[in-house]
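Database export, one record per block. Field names are fixed; values are copied verbatim from the stored entry.
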Amino acid sequence: MSTLLTPDTLAHLQSWQGRSETLQDLITPAPLRALSATLDRDDAEPVAGTELPPLWHWLFFLPHHRQSEIGPDGHAKRGGFLPPVPLPRRMWAGGRLEWHAPLRVGDAVRRVSTIASVTHKAGRTGDLLFVLVKHEVHNAHGLCLTEEHDIVYRPAAQPGDAAPAPLSAAQQVQPGAVWQREVVPDDVLLFRYSALTFNGHRIHYDRQYVTQVEGYPGLVVHGPLIATLLVDLVRRHSDRPMRRFEFKALRPTFECADQRHLRVSGQPDASGQHIRLWAQDHAGWLTMQASAELV
């Protein structure tokens, strides 16, 4: 365990387990119009009663920290609801979602969030700290959505750090894609998604910061954006409502300002109810795996 994450520090961070917060919001049409444009969709104008597409609830319950509360990475300073993890690099590692009832434009909504666990693991480049947050989203009629959100904290990049472990050929080559779409994750797309989700994390729009401070080779594509593109792929091929979705980020995806693409792929089963999904970067690396279950 590193000097940043001593046993006493870990015990302090684990004291956050069980903490909760409740946020209120209103499902309004403007963010829906903006995300539809960002995803290059030709959706009908959202009006009162329009059903919120799966994962688009991420446009609501946004962080509204004052400018004086923002840390050097563009996130809020550590502490508050999330534990003050001293490891500098923070990423959305995955999640699991289940829909119980639709959310609609005009709904007054409430999200109850709880820190379910704080777990330490040793990785190839040092300590990893995983924080599991559980969310429950309600409207006036009751529970609509439950979500488990995995956050991973990593140490700062160091000279000589090992590159991400190579994947096996079976992991890299994903046979059976029935649905496929290519998207160029350039800096404009990343900026628009950051703006829509009020995400100030500089790894998504500040190339000098992300390369010189956090040690990445380019702007990092948001994990939630890739997950949203995977769900959007399903929506382009099926109008059946989604019951469950889960995803796991396997390695970072970086912006492709030179028009190289990110590929999202899907393979439904014979019933069309269960769908295997995955994303690959311009070099063919598998960067996210996911699955969806439709009603």
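Remark 1: The helical segments are 7-14, 29-38, 169-172, 187-196, 207-212, 223-237.
Remark 2: Residues 223-237 form the longest helix (15 residues).
End of record.
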